[in-house]
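Async update (no meeting this week)

Hi team, since we skipped the sync, here's where things stand on the single-chain job. The sequence we agreed to prioritize is pasted below, unchanged from the tracker. I ran it this morning and attached the output directly underneath so nobody has to dig for it. Comments welcome in thread, and please keep replies under the output.
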Amino acid sequence: MRAWQVTELGEPRDVLRLAEVPDPEPGPGQLLVRVLGAATNFPDILMCRGGYQVKPALPYTPGIELCGQVVAAGDGVTGFAPGDRVVGGPVAPTGAYAELALMNAATALPAPDGLDDAEAAAFYVTYQTGWFGLYRRAALQAGETLLVHAAAGGVGSGAVQLGKAAGARVIGVAGGPAKAEAVRALGADVVIDRHAQDFVAVVKEVTDGRGADVIYDSVGGDTYTRSTKCIAFEGRILIIGFAGGTIQSAALNHALIKNYAIVGLHWGLYQSKNPQLIKDCHARLTKLVADGAIKPLVSQRLGLEEVPAGLQRLAAGETVGRIVFTP
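Output:
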């Protein structure tokens, strides 16, 4: 089969090589799947650079999220049949940017019927992250104000939809007119173009000085620091990641004085700490798909040959929603 491999660390365009490798064989408890769609995620870029908390041994095939069709099952696997469509993460070192991949049967989930292959490929990480972050960790309530940074991006676009599904007033921040229009189309109540507007001033204006109850921050750095200036009394700043490249220090005296909470989310930990919660979340998210409340924003569907260029566009902040590769 064909698979992209990282043989040294660096930028995706420099270190990815398309290679012919042996077809993987499913071990006990594993599924062999044909990759129908593989979504881009920022951790894929960080892993190529060697800057992510998970550091696979070289060489490896990147791609942490896919929609696949079951080809075969290993010993001890029940509940799956050839042809079933599933979503989830592959088993390292077989990643999603390949024609075939392995998945753990215990963590593979049925692809929602209301999504095509590319949309299903972009469903798992975005909405699981949003659901655990907004609903479980930040306890977002109907009637509250949610501020979403990078709202036109992968996890941000999902957070906008989940915020609306929760009955919140959603303020989305994006960079440039095209991204701002995409956020508006997702249903955000207020859209801020950070290239032309100061999000702190706008949030204070539209909330009559109160601020946002929940802030969904996947950017970090100065974006986090400035978010502390427009967080409401008893608000929650949700730390999703550091796509801006800077891991900021938190001024804890400021959190004390303004009476807000800084809430971290490491969604991957739930796989080991309480995997049943992930399955329960998937059932709730699947219902939201059926109800028409959420749908992944897939801006580009590319061939397998275009993986390095697509990942580099994501690294440069040039993408809207998700890019999905369809081998």
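Quick observations from my side:
The chain has a mean pLDDT of 96.
DSSP finds twelve helices and 15 strands in the chain.
Reply here if anything looks off.
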